[in-house]
Structure formats: structure tokens, C-alpha cells
Amino acid sequence: MTKNIHKKNHISMPRHAERHEEVEQASCKCGCGCGSECSCCKCGPAKIALFGVSALALVLSICALVKKPCDKAMTEWVNKNPKVIADSVEKYYRELDAKQRAAEKAQPKVAPADMVAKILNDKSNYSLGNPKGKYVIIEFFDYNCGWCKRTNAALKEALAKPEAKNIRWVPVDTPIFGENSEMIARFVLAAGKQGKYAAMHDAVGEFKGKIDEAALMEMGKKVGVDADKMKKDADSKEIKDKLVANREFTRALNIGGVPMLIVNGNIHPGALFGDELNEVVAESAK
Hints:
Blueprint (H helix, E strand, L loop, with lengths): L10 E2 L7 H6 L18 H23 L5 H9 L1 H25 L5 H10 L6 E2 L5 E7 L4 H14 L7 E7 L5 H14 L4 H10 L6 H11 L3 H8 L2 H16 L4 E2 L1 E4 L2 E4 L4 H11 L2
Parallel strand pairs: 3-4
Antiparallel strand pairs: 1-5, 2-4, 3-6, 6-7
């Protein structure tokens, strides 16, 4: 059950991460996860632009080698043979991509069980639910991710049930949607230094609208933290290093998007709520 892949409930890590809501509902023809208006190097307008730039670089290189200016004949040849140049460039990038994929496959894989142990032994991580629970749910998430918010809300509600008393929920802040997401994560972790991680985590999840620093400061005051200290801690090297360490977890597990969970030792890509979460709670009580 925990191995099912819910692509529609899983947001990939795009380079242009601010488009997270569109990514949830669109699909790229090349499979890169960019959305309907793909901006990666594999398809769409960007590929045409890439070929154009590469073609120009090729022509300039030829001119440099023969030590002659690009004359009319060269220009005419380029205009008459665009497919030759395009095919050459495409072949180059296909070979480069194949080499990169081969290198990735050659890297040793980290077993989820080993990563779970490492995350649980990391005292800088917070535990919600039963901190001594034997049924562990580790969640990699971003506060600006819609599916992450639904999962967080559902987990909070589920953990309030008596039958979920054996569940230990470890949220791992994984900001992938730019500076705003990272700022939010830093403020929540900073609130944790005052014993208010859970309260601030919930406050951010329940907030409606775009979250800025002023909103975070107001949320901090409402949950009972020293807002000025929270702001100072949020900018500390300790907090920033914590997010760097979290990124290392995602790299080791080859996580390509959020939400991504490890449920009782099994990788679960995608959101977790509804009947599926009910099954997890029931399983945890056995």
C-alpha cells in the first residue's frame, strides 16, 4: 500500500520552483515535470533556443579555426542546413544525458532503513505524535506545497486518534520553492528553539494567503515565542546549516519532489490522507 505512486499528489523539484501549483495539474511531454509550458532543456521553446545558441557557437568555432571571418557562403550554408546542426547538437546532449544517468546509477544507493535510523538519531529533528512511537512516518515537505499542507493537516488530525498512539511523525523541512519557502522553514525551526516547533508548524499550515516575514512574526507572537529572538535565530548559521543537512537527506534518498514520505520503512512518494492514511493508522495499531 505504501509503495503506490501518486504522481498527481507529488510535486517534482523544478528549477523554476515558484510554479508549484501549476506543476500539480500539468505534465510535460518530455517527462521533466516542468508543466505544460516546459522550460527545461529537453523540449519546447527552450530547446529551440538552445539549439540556436549552440549552432551559433559551432559556427563561430569553425570561423575561429579557419581564422577567417564568417562570410556570405558560411551564412548561406548555415541557413540551408539547420537540421544538420540541430541533429548534431541533439546527439551531443543525448550522449551527455546518457553519461550523467550512467554516473547516477553507479552511485551507491542508500537503504531507507539506514536513512530512517540516521534521521531519528539526529537530535535536531522534531517529532510530532508519540516521540517514542515505534511506527515512524518521516515526511519531506515544503510549506508552500499544497499537497504537503493537505498531508500535514491530515496527519495532525489522524495522530489525535487513540489508535494512532504508536505513530511517531518526523517532519523534515525541505524548502524547494525558492527563498520564501526557505525563510518560512527557518522561522519555524527558530520557533522550535523556544519549544514551539509544533505550534508554529501548525500556524503556518493553517495560514491563508502568502506568508511574508511580518506574517511569521505575528504568528510567532500568537504561539507564544519571543518574535525578535525567533527572527534572530532564523538568520543564524545553525538554522541555515540544518536546512543544508536536510538537503543532504534528500540527495541521499534521491528525492525528486514533495511531499515524499517514508512510512514504516517504505518509500511513499506523494500525499498521504483519506482512506490510505486510515489504513496506515490501522496498520500502526497492530
